[in-house]
């Protein structure tokens, strides 16, 4: 049924287009602004080099939801996600992407990264400086639901990693710390965008934890006057991976265009557009040029948790540590 | 000498066949796909998924809030229908049209609008906050959203019956010495009961399945304000298709049971009234 729906959707998206080659990029929510800038730039480059006018279509939504649409038959040429586990799911469940996708491009196929930052009200009235300020009584923390949102999962892991790195830190202490953080969460929104709305529009909470590039979106949407970005002492490196959907490009004959599309993300132009959208670039030259907007933050990767797939299993799957924490909080 | 009986209305076979075919394609096919998928789970695993404490808590929230919302609309819906049928006043057509608005509005829009108004900094939330009443991001918010979404059902099922109800009946009762209360209990209410029950059942069933509007106002706190459809979505986010179908099957079975019960009640009350 969903396959049929997806097919109809693709058909509806694809019919009015009369270009030589059409690419569909299935992406997650907050990448909208980046690809709005990147797609025309790439199309121009591609036309100049290969004499082929490309039409690039975008589909946005929650990262896991988008991956599910691809598994169910949405004919994406490329997927650009915020978690490698979403692409792994397409490899395992839908088998549309061949294993080893993360070896085909540099940086484990993640052209840029982001990290979790703390967004506080103007003037920082609660004096929030670091992760340990989130557990103070009377501080309300806005985080999207780790069960339904990659953004929320990164926040959970960032807080856990912070606690581990404190003197005498261990798993038991980290678990207690994360429990204390989530005790201060009054609303669990389904996704990152909804959490932003709760914090900015409904004015609920003292601190919003979200991706660094989402902070820039808030500034564009709500103005720079209403909030401040606080960089914690340490945060998690959120790699944002991309992959070609092998089954679809081989069927449609768009492999070359799709591969070029992703490769160009690492070009100086692609990296610069990323930096302009507050995504941390891989290119050292571009990173140096935009150093002012990316304060250095000590980062740890998801390998701290044995990779995202393992973290998902241990922490976020049903009955995992997050569920136990939620149960413990509800009992109080 | 047996004559083949002919119905007054021709085309019974054709129309029944069409009805069954139509229902099979539109309703039964997706439902049986659902059941088939859930049969991939062993009975033990199925039971473990659908009786997990967090899922149990979500049943209480979903069915409790839906029941409350349907009950609220049972009373307020009757009142609105009564006012719209029995009285005439300026802008009546306009108010009549207003009733259908919750149907037309995308549910997500309704949820966001309600959350904005009833959030602590919203126009209603600001008034209620000093009284210690929190609506948005509490179970109360869920009831509010469901009440909004299901408002038209009772009004629209009761309205035509009320329109057909002859005023002469009430006048006759009155001339026979019945008090106003007696007229309501013995004349009006029994006639309206089947329609009221239908409206109630529709509102209840719609509320159980509602996701779009609730998700924005519920706050979605585990064990407190998580609705069952959210549990299904969060299973899907983990690519746990089987777990999601298991919960869906439980909702389906319970909803169908409840609807059957209410339909039975309605049939019984209609029969008691001497209709068909």
From TrEMBL, chain A:
The keyword Signal applies. One of its GO terms (molecular function) is molecular carrier activity. This is Sulfate transport system substrate-binding protein. It comes from the Bacteria. It is found in: Periplasm. Keywords: Periplasm, Signal, Transport. Belongs to the prokaryotic sulfate-binding protein family. PANTHER family: SULFATE-BINDING PROTEIN. One of its GO terms (biological process) is sulfate transmembrane transport. InterPro entries: Thiosulph/SO4-bd. It comes from Andreprevotia lacus DSM 23236. GO terms for cellular component: periplasmic space. Residues 1-19 form the signal peptide. SUPFAM superfamilies: Periplasmic binding protein-like II. CDD domains: PBP2_CysP. It holds the Pfam family SBP_bac_11.
Automatic annotation (TrEMBL), chain B:
Coiled coil: none annotated. Signal peptide: none annotated. Residues 59-262 form the ABC transmembrane type-1 domain. It is found in: Cell membrane. Pfam families: BPD_transp_1 (PF00528). Its main location: membrane. One of its GO terms (molecular function) is ABC-type sulfate transporter activity. Belongs to the binding-protein-dependent transport system permease family. CysTW subfamily. Part of the ABC transporter complex (TC 3.A.1.6.1) involved in sulfate/thiosulfate import. This is Sulfate transport system permease protein CysT.
């Amino acid at each position: 049924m969903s396959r049929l729906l997806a097919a109809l959707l693709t058909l509806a998206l694809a019919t009015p287009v009369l270009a030589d080659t059409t690419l569909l990029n299935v992406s997650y929510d907050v990448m909208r602004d980046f690809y709005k800038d990147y797609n025309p730039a790439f199309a121009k480059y591609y036309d100049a080099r290969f004499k082929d006018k490309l039409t690039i279509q975008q589909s946005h939504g929650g990262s896991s939801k988008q991956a599910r649409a691809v598994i169910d038959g949405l004919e994406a040429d490329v997927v650009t996600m915020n978690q490698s586990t979403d692409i792994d799911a397409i490899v395992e469940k839908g088998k549309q992407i061949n294993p080893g996708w993360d070896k085909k491009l540099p940086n484990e196929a993640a052209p840029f990264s982001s990290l979790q930052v703390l967004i506080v009200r103007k003037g920082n009235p609660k004096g929030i400086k670091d992760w340990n300020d989130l557990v103070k009584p009377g501080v309300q923390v806005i985080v999207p639901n780790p069960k339904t949102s990659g953004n929320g999962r990164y926040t959970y892991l960032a807080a856990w990693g912070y606690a581990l790195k404190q003197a005498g830190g261990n798993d038991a202490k980290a678990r207690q710390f994360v429990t204390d953080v989530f005790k201060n969460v009054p609303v669990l929104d389904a996704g990152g965008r909804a959490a932003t709305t709760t914090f900015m529009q409904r004015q609920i909470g003292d601190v919003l934890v979200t991706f660094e590039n989402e902070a820039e979106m808030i500034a564009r949407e709500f103005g720079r006057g209403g909030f401040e970005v606080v960089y914690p002492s340490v945060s998690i490196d959120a790699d944002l991976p991309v992959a070609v959907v092998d089954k679809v490009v081989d069927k449609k004959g768009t492999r070359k265009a799709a591969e070029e599309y992703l490769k160009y993300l690492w070009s100086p132009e692609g990296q610069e557009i990323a930096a302009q959208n507050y995504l941390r670039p891989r290119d050292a030259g571009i990173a140096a040029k935009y150093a002012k907007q990316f304060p250095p933050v000590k980062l740890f990767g998801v390998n701290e948790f044995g990779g995202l797939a393992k973290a998902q299993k241990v922490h976020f799957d049903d009955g995992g540590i997050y569920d136990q924490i939620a149960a413990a909080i509800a009992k109080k | 000498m047996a004559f083949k009986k002919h119905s007054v209305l021709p085309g019974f076979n054709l129309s029944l066949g069409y009805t069954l075919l139509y229902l099979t394609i539109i309703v039964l096919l997706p439902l049986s796909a659902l059941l088939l998928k859930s049969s991939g789970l062993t009975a033990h695993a199925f039971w473990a998924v659908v009786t997990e404490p967090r899922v149990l808590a979500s049943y209480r929230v979903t069915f409790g809030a839906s029941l409350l919302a349907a009950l609220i609309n049972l009373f307020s819906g009757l009142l609105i229908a009564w006012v719209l049928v029995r009285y005439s006043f300026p802008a009546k057509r306009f108010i009549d049209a207003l009733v259908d608005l919750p149907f037309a509005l995308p549910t997500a829009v309704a949820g966001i609008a309600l959350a904005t108004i009833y959030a602590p900094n919203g126009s209603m939330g600001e008034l209620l906050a000093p009284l210690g009443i929190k609506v948005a991001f509490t179970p109360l918010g869920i009831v509010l959203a469901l009440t909004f979404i299901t408002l038209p059902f009772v009004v629209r099922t009761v309205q035509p019956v009320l329109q057909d109800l002859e005023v002469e009946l009430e006048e006759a009762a009155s001339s026979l010495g019945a008090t106003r209360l007696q007229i309501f209990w013995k004349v009006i209410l029994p006639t309206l009961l089947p329609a009221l029950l239908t409206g109630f059942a529709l509102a209840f069933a719609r509320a159980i399945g509602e996701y779009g509007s609730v998700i924005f106002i519920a706050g979605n706190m585990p064990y407190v304000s998580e609705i069952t459809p959210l549990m299904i979505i969060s299973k899907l986010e983990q690519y746990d298709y089987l777990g999601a179908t298991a919960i869906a099957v439980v909702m389906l079975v319970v909803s169908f049971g409840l609807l059957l019960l209410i339909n039975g009640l309605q049939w019984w009350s209609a029969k008691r009234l001497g209709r068909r």
